[in-house]
Structure prediction request, 132 residues.
Amino acid sequence: MAILDLSTLLENLQPVLDPDEYVFCTVNGDLTHYLSLKPLATFVEEEGLTLILTKPQAQSLGVCADPTFKRITLSVYSSLEAVGLTAVVASALAKEGISANVIAAYHHDHVFVPIKQANHAMQVLINLNNFK
Prediction:
C-alpha cells in the first residue's frame, strides 16, 4: 500500500543506486520512432521530445551524451499524493551542492544525480531516515 506520511516515507526510503549511466536527450519526431530504444522515460514538451536513455543508447542515436547521471530509486512505495518527499530529498541534496532531477513513477520516486556525485548523494539519502 502506498505511503502518504512523510516521516514514514523517510524512515523507509531505502535508496538503491542503479549501475547504469543515463542521459536526458531531446529529439524531434514522434515517440514511435524511438520506442525500439526502450527509453526509461519520456516527456513531450513544446520544444521537442525528451528521452531518458542509457548512455550507450544515446550514443547509438548520435545525440547528447553529456551530462551523465546515475539513477537512485527510492524503494519506499510512495503515494503520488504524498506531500513533501520531493522537497525534502531535493533540499537535502541541494545543501550538498548536488543537483537532483526527480521523477515520480507509480510506485517509486527516482532521483537522477550527476555521476560524479552519486555516492555522496546516496549517503545524503541514507541519512534522511533521521530527518525530523
Observations:
- The mean pLDDT is 93.
- The two ends are 23 Å apart (CA to CA).
- The longest strand covers residues 15-27.
